[in-house]
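Exercise 7.
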Amino acid sequence: ESLRAVVVPGRAVGIVYRHGAKIWVGWLKLDGTVMLAAEVVRGTGRKVGKPMLAASGGQAVLVFANLPKDEDAAKEVRWVVGGVGGSLAESEVVKLPKGGPGGDAIAPAVASMADGRWILMWTEGRSGNRVLRAQTYDAAFRTLGDALRVSPGTGNFGQGTVGVSSTRAAVAFLLSRGRG
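Solution. The predicted structure, written as tokens, is:
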């Protein structure tokens, strides 16, 4: 389910997907042969969300939402940072910046910017009272500036996506109001 691919010009094609409660990631050479066979991303809990993969130069980032094994735990965003074509098997929890409503962190999206920065967007809060937030990171994945709220207030938001043109980013997402 939720198959995604990212082409890294002149290097490789990254493939990521969800199967059951696991995220799988692998790499193809540009001629379509296997560079690194798909492997399970470790660190997941009882349920995982749709994975997203982005790459820039020699770096790749895989993000997904995760419901930990602990019954009382909030949903979290996890990521794996590594080299293009290499293993992305060890995930870790993203330490989200303060300033949001807290609670669940779901539906992440990630994109690379031309100058080596990255942008991570996620949905945060409880059902019906969520906001979409975004944070910019440098090439070493250190936060740059404050996190932004990118949604118009609170509501029921679907998974958004981030598009990048050079050093500018645009986000798109769905808001559910009543039946529509």
